[in-house]
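This part of the workshop introduces the protein records we will be handling. The question running through the whole workshop is how a given chain folds. To make this concrete, we reproduce a full record directly below:
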Amino acid sequence: MKRIYLVEDEQNLADIIRLNLEMEGFFVEHVSKGSVAFSNAPKIDEYDLVILDVMLPEVSGITICKEIRKYSNIPVLFLSAKGTTQDRITGLKTGGNDYLPKPFDLEELLLKVQILLNGVDAAKQETERENYTINNRQINFLTFEITDLSTNKKQTLSKREIELLKLFIGNKDRVVSRDEILSKFWDASQYPTARTIDNYILTFRKIFETDPKQPQHFFSIRSVGYRFTDGK
């Protein structure tokens, strides 16, 4: 049974969401205070999905999502009465996977939940493999080697490069924000910048793209982050 962590301070809305999710066969744990969700971030991987209201008492959903991203890549679906383009961009940059403005149709909510969970299941299967192939270059996650299958030439990547590839593959076709990447792979004392990640993306393009100047797999999404697709 999939487990969903619902953070919503409007009790009536939370009851409706919970009832409908439970009717679909999900286990739902509901909390109404932002401070509780923030303190639970280190153990968020006990769940499969977070539904997170943006405007919460004590601690905002944006702050909670940033804290979650220090520990987990669990999908986060934002709910918010603020539905402007800039609000959605802020949610995605923070590390949210999707954004649903209030008021919303329950059928749309359930559809977004199912899509996010299906994406996690597919990504988990892919990143649990020993090998993964992008444009005729095979990644070996155990040896950190990249093999050009047309020439059999090999090169070795660093552990961080391999972990970044795993993150992108695990979020295939979804945008991964810069903030999420920085918080996951660097601590504050290292003072990384967005340019740091750009350099890794340039490296991946040189390895995996037929033409690095016209990428087909590793895309930069302006003001938000990056998106990987393998075309499969």
About this structure: The radius of gyration is 19 Å.
